[in-house]
Design brief:
about 70 residues; alpha+beta; two-stranded antiparallel ribbon; about 40% helix; elongated
């Protein structure tokens, strides 16, 4: 008794071409991101003094207005 049958070459070839198109799109997106310098590692912080500012993501960010350290 045979539990599985071999797929015809036509089905295997169609399946490979169907998967290659989305992969090419993903690779193009990755290449575009690398050319643009990558993602920005900045966040919007709001201080207890009421000042909101953008700064590099870090474990210790100080408010440029009052100088207090922001908790991450």
């Amino acid at each position: 008794m045979q539990l599985s049958a071999a797929l015809p070459n036509r089905l295997i070839r169609d399946r490979r071409t169907a998967h290659s198109k989305p992969r090419a799109a993903v690779l193009q997106t990755i290449a575009r991101t690398k050319r643009s310098g990558g993602p920005e590692d900045r966040a919007l912080y709001s201080c207890s003094c009421g000042y909101a500012f953008k700064a590099d993501v870090s474990t210790s960010v100080g408010c440029p207005h009052c100088g207090t350290t922001q908790a991450w």
